[in-house]
Structure formats: C-alpha cells, structure tokens
Amino acid sequence: MFENLVTALCVHLGLAAPAGELDGAFYLQVGQLEIGLLEEPENDSLILECTVGNLGADQWPQQFQELCEANYYWSATNGATLGYNAASGDVVLTREWALQVLDSVKLAQLVEKFVVAAEFWNTRLDGRAQAPAAEPADALATMIRA
C-alpha cells in the first residue's frame, strides 16, 4: 500500500517515482530540502520527515525556545512536530498520518503543507530571517520543483 501510494503521489504531481532506499524510505528533493516518506508498519502510517537546520551552541537557548513555542498545539508547524537531535544539533520536522485515509490527492495536500513548514523553518534556522517567527503560510503555489 505504501509504495503504491508514493507512486500515485508522483504520478499526481507529474514526477518520476523515486527509487526506494535500502531503509524502505522514499525521498523527494524540494529545492534544497530532502523530504523523506517512510512507512511505519506498526502504526500502519506514513511519516514525513525533513532535516530543516542545525542549532549551534550559540543559537541554542533562543532558538530552542522558539522551537518549543512553534510545537505548542502545532501553532507554527502546519501540524508537524519539530524535534532536536542533541548529538548532531539537527532540527528535524516530522508528521505522521494514517495510511488508510490517504490517497494521492490527500497525500499531495499533506506534503504541500509539510513543505511550507519545512521551508519556513529551514529559512528561520539558516539565519536568513531575523524577524520573530510567524506562522508559515497555509498554501504554496508551486511546491515541488523537479
């Protein structure tokens, strides 16, 4: 079901279906970001994941508070969750969704919102945006660039 759904998503978006990796995941390149689509068999769900940045030691206190505030009722993540890997300093955005309620159209909408949030947080954590965080936009005119 998972592989068929990813293939249907790519057909829907007009992209060539990506080859599955050894870990069973599929990856879409969206601008500078790599969006992972992973199957979680125990929950019969799909997980979207993307490393959106890295927190250096000098950024940690201020940015960490901002990440926590963004996660509060998903107020600035479009329903996804930001996580922090202390060993690497990476900030990862993830979202889980039940496979049985997804089709290619619903998955495309989910990926679109996820990409908006991932691009927003990549920009914030990359230091290009110095203003306080605002909620990411709800829609993106063109989301995946082949």
Describe the protein's architecture and organization.
With 146 residues, the protein is an alpha+beta fold. It has one domain (1-144): 2-Layer Sandwich (Yope Regulator, Chain: A), CATH 3.30.1460.10. It is built from three helices and five strands. It has a five-stranded antiparallel beta sheet. Residues 138-146 have low confidence and may be disordered.
Task: Please give a handful of descriptors for the protein shown.
about 150 residues; alpha+beta; 3 helices; Yope Regulator, Chain: A; disordered C terminus; 5-stranded antiparallel sheet
How many beta-strand runs?
Answer: 5
Class from secondary-structure proportions? alpha+beta
Coarse shape: elongated
| Tally of discrete structural domains | 1
Q: Largest beta sheet, briefly?
A: 5 strands, antiparallel
Brief overview, please?
InterPro entries: Tir_chaperone (IPR010261). The chain contains three helices and five strands.
Question: Would you spell out the secondary-structure blueprint of this structure?
Answer:
Layout: H1 2-13, E1 26-30, E2 33-40, E3 45-54, H2 60-71, E4 81-84, E5 90-98, H3 104-125
Antiparallel strand pairs: 1-2, 2-3, 3-5, 4-5
